[in-house]
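Quick entry between incubations.
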Amino acid sequence: MEVALNWYLGLSAILFSIGTLGVLLKRNAIVLLMSVELMLNAVNLTLVALSQSMGDADGQLLVFFTIAVAAAEAAVGLAIVIAIFRRKLTVDITEINLFKF
Amino acid sequence: MSHDLLVRLILLLPLAGAVLLGVLPLFMPALRRREGLIGTIGTSVVVIPFAIATYLFVSYGGDPVTVSYFTWMEAAELSVDFAYRIDELSLIMTLIVTGVGGVIHLYSAGYMHGDPGFWRFFAYLNLFIFAMLNLVLANNLVVLFLGWEGVGLCSYLLIGFWYTDLKNSAAANKAFIVNRIGDFAFLMAMFLIFSELGSLSFDVLLTDAASVLSAETIDYIVLLLFIGATGKSAQIPLFVWLPDAMAGPTPVSALIHAATMVTSGLYLLARMSPIVLETEVVMMIIAVVGALTAIMAATIAITQNDIKKVLAYSTVSQLGYMFMAAGVGAFFVAIFHVLTHAFFKACLFLGSGSVIHSMEHVEHDLEHEGEDVSDFDPQDMRTMGNLQEYMPSTGWTYFIATLAISGIPLLAGFFSKDEILFKAFEYGYDGNTYAMFVWVVGVITAALTAFYMTRSYYLTFMGEERWPLADKIHPHESSWKMTVPLWILAGGSLVTGFLGLPAVIKDGKWNWIHHYLGANYGGPVAEASVSAHVPGSLEWGLIGLSSAIAVGVFFFARSMYLSQGIAFDVSLKERLGGLYELWEHKYRWDDFYDNVVVEALINQISRDGLAPFDSKIVDGAVNGLAGATQESSSLLRRIQTGVVQNYALALVFGVVLVIGLMIFGG
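Done. Structure below.
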């Protein structure tokens, strides 16, 4: 039996909201990065679902790019977090406010 | 050869000299000590143009030749070419500038020997010659103005040549600032001519102006040009810079402040003579200002003890004579006097330079003997005397030039000065009363001139030696580089007068300069026409009168200063009292300018008016704007918390807002 498109979109919206709230509320920088991954994957889910329902492979193709970019972003992001940790011995995002005027 | 190339050479050789001597030693210090090389280059780039000008002079056919190299500026109706004009007037001026200039360059090679700024001096002198040639050869007022400003700049550079002495820099500033006033009037005249006539070229100006322009416009144009001329040519009220300009090296005084640059005002009036003649009012102003300047400067010269100051005031006085001639419509006579004056005044200045040079050696010797020389002034005539015995060449040439300027018959100054006085008399005889006044002042000034020049010669070269240790220390004659130019110029002072024999001889047929320059004979210089001619016997009488005055005053001053020396100055002072004091203080012109113009006018306005305006309103606006920016930014900067999540929140709100607008905004 075929799952209706609306279910996929609903799940994706829920995942995206969880990710957004994680970015806005969590204090641990690593969790922050994981939340960003969650948001990206919510979008990926939308793309795949719509691609399936419209019978067009373009959406699935785009997902591969998103995954590649997400991997690169995670690598850079984690590297920054490690660099900050070495210097400040903390990954609490509220403590890291170098741009405060 | 074509004129195109020759004029180019005349102009570009001095410029090349200036660039070569001014730039190369700047980067190659070893060159600075090569005085022989520098002197040779500097002198030859003036002498070669003299030779070319002589060729042009000899081969001149009688029709003005204009050469135009390129268009300098072009905007709407304004079009200015780099155009030059060869005619009788510019040829004579070019010959004076390059001829006398070349001689003075040779002299400078001797005079400036050993000076660390030798190369700089020759670079400036060559630049001056280039600017002066632009001035006299220009075919429009803009190129003339370029030269006019150029000579002003070189004058400034050379007055302040020994700039480590603050006094010299001050004199240079004074010359430059006073000249600016005149230059401003000149600029206004140019604007007026352009707006009324639409052209600044002499081709249009000299042929059409008199018929196209209204009488009132011409009045203003000529008045403004004359104010310009009073600055450059040191007339009342702008003459105050010239005596101070003697702070420069003596060859500069001879070249710029006696022979060439200061006569450019006269050249301007002679060039514009067809227009100047249209306005009787301004001609009267010119003549009266000239006459007053002449007698004022002559009376000051009597009281001066600095040998160069005497000559400086004498120059102002002689320039006054030239303006008298211009004011009675005898422009060719003014140029004639420019020519003769260039010779005898340059000779006098160079002679004084030779004297100063040897007195500096005396000062040096005195110091060597252990004397206190802090009060010794090598330019003060009171410490000289009997120099004729030690410096025969300098003495004789100075004597010849003294006789020439005094108006002793058959020397250069006699003919030109007498022609000025006669023209003034003739113009007055014709019914112009002011010319009679000018004539009377001119005759008195002639007597004063003979007096102060004779005084200067006898105080310097005759009588007893007045410097300390005179029996042990003796001055020496200068080198040939300095005496040869003196003899050349003295020769000119003897013979150039014969170029303009008075009208009474052969009915004026032998007045070469009149036939050469005069518009009546096809030349460029117009003159006033007179209907009532002075009878020949009366003219002979006038010549006799001025000869008698010159000779009489010469012998009077000679006997007084030979027998009494400087004591005669003291008795003169006692007899004249307050008048002598007024002369000694130069009619208090400098005090007037200091107290009234500089202090009361300029300083008051700037202190009480402009300074508060600047500090309150201008600074207030700038500071207020800065303060307001600072205040508002100190409020705004609080949103920069540095916490990533705050920024992310703003981002999310933004996205929600945009999506909301897309969905609900239609």
